[in-house]
Amino acid sequence: MRNNLPPLNYAILKLFADGAERCAQDVIGELRADYGSYKLLSPEGVGEALATAKENELLEETRFELSGADTLITYYRATEFGKETIERYI
User: Fold this and answer.
1) d(Cα 15, Cα 70) in Å, to the nearest integer?
2) How far apart are CA 9 and CA 49, in angstroms?
3) Torsional sign, CA 80, 82, 11, 50
């Protein structure tokens, strides 16, 4: 761990404990100050972490948008199970 920061995946999940919805770009914006030098703090890396959390039922997809570049943007929020798990273990 650099600078005594928790692992990036933990930090990503911790953001969702507040119940707000976010997309990968939102997560990157919120973590850039602390994790900006991490290679996984990228749309692909964060997107993969979010998809994995969804598969583990910690997050759920809330909505989809199409960006100006015809890219699909997926928004997520923590499930009740996810909130409890994040608060208890991370």
Assistant:
1) 27
2) 7
3) negative
Q: What is the pLDDT of residues 57-86, one digit of tens each?
A: 999 999 999 988 889 999 999 999 999 999
Give all domains of the chain, ordered by start, each with its CATH number: 2-89 (1.10.10.10)
DSSP string computed for 22-88: B-HHHHHHHHHHHHTT-TT-SHHHHHHHHHHHHHTTSEEEEEEEE-TTS-EEEEEEE-HHHHHHHHH
Strand, helix or coil at 6? coil
Q: Is 17 within 8 Å of 78 (Cβ atoms)? A: yes
